[in-house]
Amino acid sequence: MSAQGKRLLLNGNHAVSYAVKLAAPRVIPVYPITPQTPILEKITDFLADGEMDAEVMTMESEHSAMAAAITASLAGVRVFTATASQGLLLMHEMLHYASGARAPIVMANVNRTLGSPWGFWPDQTDSLAQRDVGWIQYYCENGQESHDTTLLAFRVAEQAMLPAMVIHEAFYVSHALEAVELVSPEQAASYLPPFAPLHRLDPLIGESWGNTVSQQMFQDHRRDLGEAMEGVAALAKAADRELEALVGRGYGIVEQYRCDGAELVIATMGSMTGTARDAVDELRSEGVAVGLLKVKLFRPFPATDVRELLAGVPKVMVLDRNFAPGTGGFLFQELKSALYGMRGAPPIHGYLAGVGGTSISPAAIKELARGALAEEPSANSVWKG
Amino acid sequence: MSYQIEEQKVFNSGHSACPGCSEALAIRFILNTLGPDTIAVVPPSCIAIISGPQPLSSMRIPVYQSTLESSAASAAGIKRALTAQGNDHTTVVAIAGDGGTYDIGFQSLSSAAERGEDIIYICLDNEGYMNTGSQKSSATPSLAYTTSTPAGKGTPKKNMAEIMAAHDIPYLATATTGYPEDLARKVAKAQRLTGGLRFIVALVPCLDGWGIPDSAGPKVSRLAVESGVFPLYEVENGVNYTLNFGPKDVPVADYTALQKRYRHLTAKDQEFLQKEVDGNWARLAKKF
Ligand SMILES: Cc1ncc(C[n+]2csc(CCOP(=O)(O)OP(=O)(O)O)c2C)c(N)n1
Ligand code: SF4
Ligand SMILES: [Mg+2]
Fold it and tell me: Does CATH number 3.40.50.970 belong to domain A7-247?
């Protein structure tokens, strides 16, 4: 084991910035938006202090930021950017373009409500609405996890040649201070090899990208993209194990917490996981057999793992801090489809909790769990506060 | 002008432009002047069609096809990545249509100019969205027919050269395919004057969109200059204006007469166009 990293008091955003410094991307297109801005500000501080060396591009929009990120990546360098909310949505066209171009960009997204009306609150709908754009998506519970996951994401993205998003929520994570143990530069150097893509835009190589293709070529390309995405679960597990071996912290692609003999498993993502963990501990101490399933890797959706972990569980309760009108909570939808057709699949309660950033306490989750144990689930997501 | 075009074989024959297309002619002079140590960015447009469907390419250099509105940002991303790798010799050029420049790509272009991105941006201006079937763009001139302005466009052409001059970029020029040496010389100059965004807007008559015969591109292009519709000039650092080819007392009606997109014009319309062109020239002439 190489030298341990320092322990610093950091907010979740700065925890990401410190990981970006370790990954040393060479091009960083930037555009400000609350509550993401501190990530990029910290990076520009590192650059000003000579602790990092990169081309920073102060773009006029997130759309152009992603456009430049894609071509810089295709020209053969590691690229990072960050965004949130409206900015992520403005990028939508370019998100598809990035995965189509197999550009392994890593981007932090800080979950924030989408207008209209305006709000600044933690809500995962912005990134979940981008679930079909061909990006790997990691959801993080706290700053420590965001720090570690940023390095994980670079590694997995560059192995799969797919772009990756590292996601945490506004304020609850982005601005909350906590002690974060940094990965040390030596550890990072051994963990993340230099980015040296086989194909790139270079007159000496002469390869092009983006030209019109035939129907069959297009289909073949989509299949390749799909296969690369399917391979991500295994790459992500391996990357996680190696990080754990190196720094002593591992997360899995999904995490099971106190699920032994559980009558009910609470499934959630992001900062809600921390709250749910407390609720599970309290319920267990009160004799109620409840466990927790944290979905960390959301794209590709770890359907096989989720099936294994939920096999034989009598009931599931999903907490979604996100909402799609007409279909409800995203994790609820994904879990239902992952479990469909499984023999003895558990019934699932889909609860909308914390949408718009409302506070959900451990006590509230305990209430919900007791209710879920007593009731039959309804087919659709149910509003719970 | 006695500029000798030194063509390097970067752009090949056998591409898929309409026979007689001025846009293809412009690409020939641009790429064969820039040479093989070049990476091109091309957004959706006739230029993209001309560059060829995968796995074919009419261009012997790496070509990145961007989204319609992001050519300047895309070119800048490539240039910055090359810089980060210590490559200070490869030219990065965006070649975009007028729709991709004056309209949807304007925001990205303006910002790249403001940031001083070390790229060349060339707009091949055929005064409309030709790839999608000749719709109006903000480069379409007054009274011209397009499929989205069937009665003739009611507003004048946006003055892109002056807008770019206002960005104080190291170099900008207007050019057109009827003056190939002038076009090639400007491309070579743009390649030399590194250190910021260099912009060239080249008028390229479109056979289909303008309603002109296959052989008429160069003639219509020359008439655009001689009538004062499209004077050829250069601006360095936003202030140093040089006139290359100005009006030669040719009536605007001689220019419009060759184009079906103007066949609905009345005598009054002609008078209106002449006045507009005279006014634009009077305003520009003061700057030389
Ligand atoms: C975002 C987006 N909107 C619309 C289009 C459709 N589109 C493709 S080519 C084109 C015309 C571009 O016109 P111009 O830039 O003038 O190039 P020309 O075809 O005239 O060479 C349009 C509108 C697109 N590709 N992307
Ligand atoms: S439509 Fe016009 S611009 Fe396009 S290839 Fe044909 S002549 Fe050239
Ligand atoms: Mg056009």
Answer: yes
Residues of chain A with pLDDT > 90, as a percent, come to 98
Question: What are the phi and psi torsion angles at A88 (to 5°)?
Answer: -65, -40
CB B42 within 8 A of CB B65: yes
The predicted structure's pLDDT at residue B63: 98
pLDDT digits (tens, 9 = 90+) for B73-85: 999 999 999 999 9
Dihedral, CA atoms, A302, A183, A130, B66, nearest 10 degrees? -120
Domain count, chain B: 1
H or E stretch at A165? strand A164-169
Sole residue written with tokens 């373009």 = A97
Question: CA-CA distance, A249 to B81, in Å (whole number)?
Answer: 33
Per CB-CB distance under 8 Å, the chain B contacts of A97 are 67
Ligand 1 pocket test target in B47, B65, B129 with most atoms within 8 Å of CB: B129
Residue B126 Cβ contacting ligand 2 at under 6 Å: yes
B38, containing H or E segment:
strand B38-42
CA–CA dist B97, B142 (Å, integer): 19
Q: How would residue A2 be classed by pLDDT, with cut points 50, 70 and 90?
A: low
- Listed by number, the residues of chain A in 68-107 with a beta carbon closer than 8 Å to a beta carbon of chain B are 68-77, 79, 93-94, 97
State the Cα torsion B68-B72-B75-B78 to the nearest 10°.
Answer: -110
Residue in A closest to B63 by C-alpha:
A208
- Beta strand B38-42 pairing with A348-352: unpaired
pTM of the entire predicted model = 0.98
User: Which ipTM value was assigned to this complex?
Assistant: 0.97
CA-nearest of A334, A337, A345, A329 to A380 is A329
Written as one string, the DSSP assignment of A247-271 is HS----SEEEES-TT-SEEEEE-TT
What residue has token string 């076009």?
B183
In a domain, B238, yes or no: yes
The pLDDT confidence band at residue A146, using thresholds 50, 70 and 90, is very high
Look at ligand 1, atom 26, and give the residue with the nearest C-alpha: B68
Domain borders along chain A are: 7-247, 254-383
CATH architecture of the domain covering A254-383: 3-Layer(aba) Sandwich (3.40)
One-letter amino acid at A61 equals S
Give me the torsion for CA of A29, A30, A36, A40, rounded to 10°. 90
